[in-house]
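Example (one chain per record):
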Amino acid sequence: MFSFIQRLSKTPSQSMLASASISAMVLLVSQTASAITTQNLTYTVDNQAYEGYYARADVPNAPFILLIHDWDGVTDYERKRADMLAEEGYNVLATDMFGTGVRPTAMEDKKRLTGALYDDRAKMRRLLEAALNVGQDQGNNVQEGVTMGYCFGGTVALELARAGFPQKAFVPFHGAFDMPKGQDYENTKGEILVFHGTADEAVSMESFMTLGKTLEAAKVPHEMVTYSGARHAYTVFGSDRYDERADTRSWKRYMDFLSSEYK
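Predicted structure:
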């Protein structure tokens, strides 16, 4: 079991990560018309600076959501989704897995950055630990939260599920489901909710079905939803892959799911 699972049970004032300096620094604060507060937060992991985006709901004791970006880093897309969730009453940290200012646009750079983390799962988990600590430093109960992600971020959300970190749920939108050698879902402590397009050319339906069988064998509560005609990255507004029907339906199901978890 990874140490961060135990360490996060301590009080927020205690140091929780030897390799990460988690002094979250507010860089930008703005009050939006929809009564949410947004800000950029910087923190350090392995002597590298990272910058996440935090959207706070204007409600007391709002549930926490950790949002993990696609393979181009924290962009306007993640910020938009975080704002949408905050407007629904959730505190959302769109965490940074690449580093401050690292927002790749070239395909080779996206593959290099994501590939490096796929090959170094210990670092991936350190980054997740740091993000959770930042969320906790903002006054959130991260162990009662939800982790979600898009594409690469969905894959990372499942990494946290396998790590055994206690949360309500782990929610990949059009993520990948391959499991690294030596890992399993035996220690998963939350529900898994999966959204996937049956026309996804990057992640096969065979992989989707294998995940379902794996979760069933591990007795992990799960719900897996597919949408006909939806391609990979079907939720990305304005892209040629955007599928309004699948996006609208999956978002509604996600909102209903969150409501049931926090009723």
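Caption: Confidence is low (pLDDT under 50) at residues 9-33.
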